[in-house]
Amino acid sequence: MNRNCISKYLIFALLFFAMALSGSPAQEARVLTYEEAIDVALNRSFTVKSNMANREEMQHNYEYFMAMFKPRIDFSMFAPSWRENVAPIQRTDGLPVYNSTGLMQLGGDLKYTYMLPTGGNFALSTQLYRERLKTVLAMQDYKELGSKQAYSSLSVSFSQPILTKNTLRENLQEAEYWYERSSSQFTRGQINIIYRVTDGFYALYRATREVEIASERLANSEEAFRIAKLKGETGRIPEGDVLIAEIEASQNRASLLEQEGALERAKDAFIQLIGLEQSEDVRIVTDLKYDTFDVNMDKAIGEALKNRMEIYESELDIKLQEISIDKAKRVRELSGEITAYYDLTGVSTMGSGSTGDLFESSFDNFVDRPPNRGVTLTLSYPVFDWGRGAAQVQREEVSLKEKQLRQEDTKRTIVREVKDIVRRVEETGNRLLIQEKNQPIAQRSYEISRMRFENGDITSQELGREQERLTDSQLQYLSAFISYQLAVADLKRKTLWDFKNDQSYIVDTGYTVEDKRQKAKG
Predict the structure, then answer these.
(1) What is the Cα–Cα distance from 495 to 307, expressed in whole angstroms?
(2) What DSSP element (H or E) covers 472?
(3) Cα→Cα distances 88→103, 132, 267, Å
(4) What is the per-residue DSSP string for 499-511?
(5) What does the alpha-carbon distance between residue 195 and residue 192 come to, in Å, rounded to a whole number?
(6) Which of 115, 358, 398, 452 has the fewest CB atoms within 10 Å, counting from its CB?
(7) Confidence band (pLDDT; 50, 70, 90) for 350?
(8) What are phi and psi of 164, to 5 degrees?
């Protein structure tokens, strides 16, 4: 090798080490247990955030209708209001003439409204404004007339719908049902995300264990190839057995690379599922201990029918639909309204002067001017609408029947799902126990076969088959373990009962699903 080549390699080596030293250190993997992964997902996952946003939206909607029962104060101000236009003046003895009029106002309104529990309201309002009037007379050579005046009023009004439902309270009830429904969906979403995290956690665990099994298999095959190569050199085994051992090692090396790629994909999917940044690296800690327990079928079905959110949500859907029917019926019902008002109005009579003098004059006019007052009883009834109202009622009633049928089907589906998951827990538990017993047997069988291969009693091909049986046994146990864990998690999700600890799976909030259901029925 000449001096130039040596110099190039030295420069390349120096650059490599400089980049290694200056580069940022590799990010340390975040170690997560099963419980920690669930905690992260319940706070950061997209599903939980989406359900939380929906619940918050319905909460604000409920608060809006709650606030409708509270008094309100409204203030408006025109500062200023100005307009000029041409107005026709009709004459009995001739054609109309067109005078120009102008108005400049400066003032405002203040209104206090007290909502009644019956759906009506009392209102106290006052209005003050100062105005400048102008008129240009076309019949008098466009002579301009003008005046200044002040206007003040104080009034009390009352309004009460009759012969109809209290829509204010009905709207509040409807908003409360929607809020309860969104809260139920939020809780159900949390339960579902826990199961999805469980599924993703064990999918990542499966990928991790498959890499470990593939690594162990590669190590075994490389050791077998080493032994076969030594024997081949001394002529103790045919060359074909050495080649078979080499091929087996190469295939296991390729299989390990595939499993490592699958592990990275599973890790990326899990990171997205629980809501971490894609730049983060995670590693999971899995406790291989498990407990088997008995599940009473009748209790499982009873707890599911009592606690499943879907049944409660279907009851809320029925209540909401009943409100829709009431609204549709009111289109064809007799309705009425009682309104009354009493107000004192004062208009200044000075025509000019300061603002204070004008308003003082308008206040004095309160006494001289008779009050404005009135009471109105309004009744309305749609005599004939060509069947529109009846069709709307029938449509809403059919929709109610559909929701009632859907509720019954939901209950049947829940019973079927619970029966299926209870059987699956039993089946996967029995399968796990069998595969657990097979583990030491398969491991011992492989060790015996490896010793026999070293002694020359079997060929490398037979040792490879024994390695295949060991790997298959390990994968069968892994599959049985994960299937059992997922079945137990699914049992909790579908019954909302923890049979292992014999307690409710839902956090005790003092307000059970059964309480909510009774409220919805009431």
Answers:
(1) 7
(2) helix 460-495
(3) 16, 20, 82
(4) TTTTEESS---S-
(5) 5
(6) 398
(7) low
(8) -150, 170
pLDDT tens digit sequence for 261-318? 998 998 899 888 888 888 888 888 766 677 778 888 999 999 999 988 899 999 999 9
Q: Whole-angstrom Cα distance, residue 301 to residue 208?
A: 36
How far is it, in rounded angstroms, from Cα 29 to Cα 26? 9
d(CA 1, CA 481): 59
pLDDT digits (tens, 9 = 90+) for 48-77: 888 888 888 888 888 888 888 889 889 888
* CA dihedral sign of residues 439, 445, 451, 454: negative
How many residues appear in the chain? 522
Going by C-alpha positions, the residue among 200, 218, 202, 225 that lies closest to residue 259 is 218
* R_g over Cα of the chain: 42
Q: Which contiguous run of DSSP H or E holds residue 185?
A: helix 167-234
- Extract the tokens encoding 280: 């983060």
Residues 6+ apart with CB under 8 A from 244: 228, 459, 460, 461, 464
Phi first, then psi: what are they for 344, rounded to 5°? -105, 130
* Alpha-carbon span 446 to 453, nearest angstrom: 10
Collect all residues with Cβ–Cβ distance below 8 Å to 149 and sequence separation of at least 6. 130, 131, 133, 347, 348, 349, 350, 351, 358, 362
Question: Distance between CA atoms of 137 and 122, rounded to whole angstroms?
Answer: 44
At 211, which amino acid appears? V
Residue with tokens 């579902």: 192
For residue 146, which of 205, 206, 102, 202 has the smallest C-alpha distance?
A: 102
pLDDT given at position 21:
40
- Report whether 322 contacts 400 (CB < 8 A): yes
Closest residue by Cα to residue 67 from 110, 115, 111, 122: 115
Domains of the chain and CATH, by start: 32-58+170-324+392-521 (1.20.1600.10), 71-116+120-164+335-380 (no CATH)
CA gap 294, 282 in Å, rounded: 35
Pairwise CA distance, residues 488 & 295, whole Å: 10
Alpha helices in 3-45 (DSSP H): 3-22, 34-44
* CA dist list (Å): 405 to 176, 271, 402: 24, 40, 5
Q: What is the mean pLDDT of the chain?
A: 82
The residues pairing with 107 across neighbouring beta strands, listed in sequence order, are 78, 129
Amino acid letter at 165? K
